[in-house]
Amino acid sequence: MLDWNQDPHRRYNPLTREWVLVSPHRTQRPWQGQVEGKAGAAQPEYDPECYLCPGNARAGGAQNPAYEATFVFDNDYAALKPYTPPGRFERGGLLIAESEPGICRVVCFSPKHNLTMANMAPADLRKVVDQWVEQYADLGGRPFIGYVQIFENRGAMMGASNPHPHCQIWSSRALPNEVAKEQSAQAEWRERNGTCLLCEYARLEAEAGARVVDANEGFLVVVPFWAIWPFETMVLARRHLPSVDKLFSPERDLLADILKRTTARYDRLFGVSFPYSMGFHQRPTDGEEHPEWHLHAHFLPPLLRSATVRKFMVGYELLGTPQRDITPEAAAERLRKA
Ligand code: H2U
Ligand code: ZN
Questions:
Q1: Looking only at Cα atoms, what is the longest distance across the chain?
Q2: Contact in structure between 71 and 41 (CB atoms under 8 Å)
Q3: Which of 18, 78, 89, 236 is a Cys-bridge partner for 104, taking CB atoms 3.0 to 4.6 Å apart?
Q4: 114 CB neighbour count, 10 Å cutoff
Q5: Are 110 and 96 in contact (CB under 8 A)?
């Protein structure tokens, strides 16, 4: 009989409608590959060389104000620009291109260079949540912005250019690929079943318990049944709401609380400031109501078995299907205990 904890199997991700290969028996294989350096030394509260610290000059020549809580500015090296002229190219149904206007911003979480979400005061992290809500409304309210992607790259391993606590916001006219997959899956689920895909999923996970990592009154943290990254998690709003602007004030505090708890838990897992990319997926800002959307965040950390051994997405995973060794249930158990 198949043993889900030992035998190779594949799991379905209903949000992207893609599969992941799970090979639990492989966790014993030896590793002689690349070993990453441990995260750098402790940082000072203020770094005169940091382009995000208060009062400092940025690369573009602008100077940061002496800010005291959060600070937002337009990215000096924006990937998207608001005044992009319209344009479309199509040849034979195969060569297709179109212009893409957008706005990219950087949000500093705190004036203190050496903080992270894990060690910020809850009241200060709440101000970051408020800033996300403001940015979602401001950017999403513009007629040419159809989606607002809020994300954080944390740690040099994830390509973060700077340890100063910050995130980025890229807002664009079109839906990004990952969001487009989740958009059609949630819309079709709602059409077919009359329910919300992620409300149903959260209910199943809360019932099963094996993949639940943490929870508060507003949010549930799980290692998704279909997780690709070893310690990937998903933060799900417990209430059906499409986007951060619909959070009640106490729910904003609960979001700050669950993010702090989750990042602190990650840091405890291997005793390092845990690297990850995280971001929110929420209702597109194309003017439609989108009742199918359910607000959630994904944490996608690269670390595999220690602070220095990471997972690489290569070979079969790039050309075939993503694959994991440690089961989502085993990862959730380790995170719960951290
Ligand atoms: P990351 O750490 O996730 O790379 O984010 C830093 C962003 O800050 C990056 O997108 C921008 C980079 O373009 N940046 C500025 O806007 N001004 C600067 O002076 C340096 C970096
Ligand atoms: Zn700094």
A1: 65
A2: no
A3: 78
A4: 15
A5: no
Give pLDDT, residue 130. Answer: 98
Ligand closest to Cα of 48 equals 2
Q: What share of the chain is helix, strand, coil (3-state, %, to 5)?
A: 30, 20, 50
Residues 6+ apart with CB under 8 A from 106: 52, 72, 73, 74, 75, 166, 167, 168, 169
Q: What tokens were used for 225?
A: 């049944």
Task: Give me ligand 2 centre to Cα 258, in Å.
Answer: 25
pLDDT of res. 32:
66
* pLDDT at residue 38, rounded to an integer: 64
Identity of the amino acid at 43: Q
Amino acid at 128: V
Spatial strand order in the sheet of 323-324: 9-13, 18-22, 323-324
Which residue ranges form the domains of the chain, and what is each CATH number? 46-337 (3.30.428.10)
pLDDT digits (tens, 9 = 90+) for 53-85: 999 999 888 999 999 999 999 999 999 999 999
* Shortest-distance ligand to the CA of residue 49: 2
CA angle 168, 180, 209 (to 5 degrees): 80
CA 338, CA 329: separation in Å to the nearest integer?
14
Note whether 332 and 212 are within 8 A (CB). yes
pTM of the predicted protein model:
0.96
The token pair that represents 59 in the structure block = 């690369």
Which of the residues 113, 164, 166, 294 is marked catalytic?
Answer: 166
Annotation says 240 is catalytic: no
One-character DSSP codes across 167-216: EEEEEESSPPHHHHHHHHHHHHHHHHHSS-HHHHHHHHHHHH-TTEEEE-
Look at residues 143, 156, 148 and name the one whose alpha carbon lies nearest to residue 131.
148
163 — phi, psi (to 5°)?
-75, -15
Output Rg (C-alpha) for the chain, integer angstroms.
20
Q: Which segments in the chain show pLDDT lower than 50?
A: none
Closest ligand 1 atom to the C-alpha of 60? 19
